[in-house]
From TrEMBL:
Residues 435-444 have a biased composition (Polar residues). GO terms for cellular component: microtubule. Residues 435-459, 706-746 are annotated as: Disordered. This is Kinesin-like protein.
Amino acid sequence: MVKQTIQIFVRVKPTKKPTSGYFVDCEEQGSSLEFVVPRDLADGFINNKRENYNFRFQKVFDQTANQEEIFETIAKPVADNVLAGYNGTIFAYGQTGSGKTFTITGGAEHYNDRGIIPRTLSYLYHHISKDSSMVYTTHISYLEIYNEAGYDLLNPQHEAYRLEDLPRVTIMEDSDQNIHLKNLSLLQSANEEEALDLLFLGDTNRMIAETPMNEASTRSHCIFTIHLCSKELGSATVRCSKLHLVDLAGSERVGKTGVGGQILTEAKYINLSLHYLEQVIIALSEKNRSHIPYRNSMMTSVLRDSLGGNCMTTMIATVSVEKRNIAESMSTCRFAQRVALIKNDALLNEELDPALLIVRLKKEIQSLKEELALVTGEQRSDKLNQEEIQQLEEQVNVYLEDPDNEVTLDLGPDMRKIHFCFFLLKVKVRERHSAQNGVSNGSSPPLKGMSDGEDRKPHDELQKLRDTVTHRDNEISILVSMLKREKRKVQDVTSQLAQLHNQNPSTCSSSRSPTALQAEESEKCDTSLDYTHAHHFITRKRVSELSVGKQTAFEVFLRDHEDRLTIEDNRAVLQQRFVEAKTLGEQVNQTRIRVNELKTQLKIRRKQMAAQVLTGNQTESESDSVEERILNQIEEQKKNYTITSGCLKGLRTEIEHLQLLREKSKVKLQRDFENWWIQEGARLQGHSAENTGSSLSHVSPLSCMLTRNNNPKGDDTDTQERRQRERDMRQRALPSADLSFTSIPLTGDKQTDAEIQAFIRARHNLLNCTGEAK
Ligand SMILES: Nc1ncnc2c1ncn2[C@@H]1O[C@H](COP(=O)(O)OP(=O)(O)OP(=O)(O)O)[C@@H](O)[C@H]1O
């Protein structure tokens, strides 16, 4: 374990503007920074306020310090420790614009301006490529924390137009209080180029997701983490370490006071999580504090190990010595002094490779089992498998070929293996014997001291094994040919699909946005509702429950219904909205595709520019006009996207509203129809009763419909209550049991008509009985 306090460095940002009195103490090898703040007469004549404020650091980097120096002094030792298996953290702290991003990531204009991240990556991969005695694996993650929410900057599946578009990262804590970050991509990077690509992807996401409104770069914290695992060749121990490179949010505070004012008065941080960071720092720097409030914020939770834990941590305080920034700069220095009091206990993160450990333990268990079986006399009776047989054959061959007479054939306590090896040895002896005697027909003469029958045994066994091998070979070739056939089928289907796609690209769903698809789906469902056919107004379930007659009645009813026109109007509007939504959805999709193209162009352009810088062909122009043009286009497309998706959203709300209206109309219509149905039924029955005898001649269409479906229980699944109402009405309509009354058209066939009349009579009696019973 290495016990070490957090190392603190300060970097002064170069400026051409007037500076305050500040002074780097060169006698102390540049480890002290002093600010001179003259007393303000406005504070009165008697004023014994301090004028000199002195802060000590491991080293002060003055305005002339370049990126190379910063890397060599600060980052290289940390990177070396990470390679050795210790965790490391470097974090930059300072007010907005003081040079945190410049120090951690670097400037975008000159190759020499590369910051700590690219230089560290370069250093690590250079070391890794040189060291052939170790196997290294590296993974990268890039997290942005804004307003206490974490965002994954490396998720390739998400298009980041706003910070909120990026996948949200959440914190999980296991029972050992280890922090796990859910949803944070951990991407493997085999070399420097891949790692730089990831850094670029993260920075692009950060840049594109950033808007002037949220000022994400100033208000957010970014943690770029390199996860390194190393293993010596052939060794079972692995070392896994992490290096966090942290660009914190601007540390400025509200209630900033002038230099001559109350400099010492603590103001509040604008960024809440920096306030929590300070609380953690204070708690850690105080002795005997049992509780450290790491959990208060996401940033302190993620950096828990870096602050007072298993890590070698370094802080870079970035300050500006311009007069207007002096108070903030002193605040930064004061914060650094507190940080310097924190002690970390860095551990060598070494553990046994779990995969190798499992193999090793399995082997040990097997050998112990075999030993136990030998001691207890319980031998395994199952046959050796193909793999074991092969291994034993190899072992015997090695044993026989070894010129050393002392060499042993180690088979463990498994008697099956011992027997098999004896058998193999015997076969080999026989083969050699046959060769010496010039017998080439494959059937060796019996060994000395062996009967013919005994000699045959191993030969038979060998034959059996050969048969098994042939059998297995056959099986394998059958399976392979089956596999090939299946593969061919899949290829055929794929090529057919591709053909289909080429013939009619519009059917390819992947090119459409989910919104457009959704709209289309809804439209499909909706256009299937043909309002000229009334029964479509009733849900499928209910249609199946309605008799044909009632369905026809419903059509008639709807034709004359007062709401019909409104319903049809709504339907037309809805259809129109669906078409509009589909068009807008396609537009949104197009914009998305365009932005993707532009992003690719941007990436290529930046790579080209970086290459030019490398080869020294880069012009000294301030900005790249091509890049600017692409960025402007992205911006324009972003605006388009926002507008179109906004319209789509509005349209969706309207569609939902119209669909709701349609549902309401449906319910109302059904209810009206049911009432009408009952009333009409009662009216007709009453009418028919008055006109007994003439029923056959006076049959209204509805009465036909009613009577054609003479189900005594009614045609639908009405409630008990309604059935009772119908029964009452019919009863009222049928005061006598006159069988001559019926509106049922008779068929002319005597027997059928007699049956119909018998049925009517029975039904009538039944209705009367139930009425009396009541
Ligand atoms: N040491 C330096 N040498 C040259 N330029 C610098 C240096 N430090 C900062 N700058 C420049 O100052 C500007 C602001 O720096 P930078 O963006 O790094 O500040 P910051 O502290 O990260 O701000 P923020 O909190 O808003 O992210 C940039 O244009 C950067 O190039």
